[in-house]
Amino acid sequence: MNELPATEVGIISQDSYYKETHHLSYEDRTKINFDHPRAIDFDLLVAHLKDLKAGKTIEQPIYSFVTHDRTNDVVVTHPRKVMIVEGILILSNPELREMFDIKVFVHADSDERLIRRLKRDIAERGRDMEEVLNRYQNTLKPMHQQFIEPTKAYADIIIPNDKYNTVAIDVVRAVIKQRIR
Fold first, then answer.
1. Confidence at residue 167, expressed as pLDDT on a 0 to 100 scale
2. How far apart are CA 80 and CA 78, in angstroms?
3. How far is it, in rounded angstroms, from Cα 176 to Cα 83?
4. Is residue 29 packed enough to be buried (19+ CB in 10 Å), middle (13-18) or exposed (0-12)?
5. What whole-number distance in Å separates Cα of residue 48 and Cα of residue 35?
6. What are the E-state strand segments in 8-129?
7. Beta carbons within 10 angstroms of residue 47's beta carbon
């Protein structure tokens, strides 16, 4: 009874909307600052969300973190009563913020962000520790301070990510259930 109907809730990930970079060499793609808002194709993301809201099906891009580029594949995404849009930079875009009924910021401690990044990028993306640490110091940390942390001000709910926060999750779940009805 506490679960949300999967057929009525969809998820769109900001990570699917990194800009196409196939015109660049792999070496040049590795130098892109993917933690900066200009790395995201916000125009396409906004257009896709508007299409979904209008009841249209979209072809969501698939991004490869191994090649630093979009693949030729897509995910056919159907409109749902509730679309969850997730990503660290989504609240940095004013047009997106205006489209959202509720804005949630999940706050993670900087040490926790580094640990997650190390584990994920080494295990899933074929990076070595030196590359991950270098990217963290030179791009992720400064971009977090410049573009992500300030967007807390736009959030309706801020969820601390240092423990399982059942109260905040229950509030978000209740809002989603209300939208479904």
1. 81
2. 6
3. 9
4. middle
5. 21
6. 9-13, 58-64, 69-77, 82-86, 104-107
7. 12
Cα–Cα distance between 1 and 12 in angstroms, integer? 25
51 Cα distance to chain centroid: 19
Which residues are CB-neighbours of 71 under 8 A, at least 6 positions away? 61, 62, 63, 64
Which SS3 state, helix, strand or coil, does residue 1 take? coil
Collapsing DSSP to helix, strand or coil, 175 comes out as helix
**pLDDT single digits (tens) 76-109:** 999 999 999 999 999 999 999 999 999 999 888 8
137/161 Cα distance (integer angstroms):
21
CA distance 117 to 138: 14
Q: What is the pTM of this model?
A: 0.84
- Cα 125 to Cα 96: distance, rounded to the nearest angstrom: 28
User: Is 147 exposed, middle or buried, given 0-12, 13-18 or 19+ CB atoms closer than 10 A?
Assistant: middle
Closest CA to 154 of 114, 99, 115: 99
**Cα separation, 137 vs 108, whole angstroms:** 17
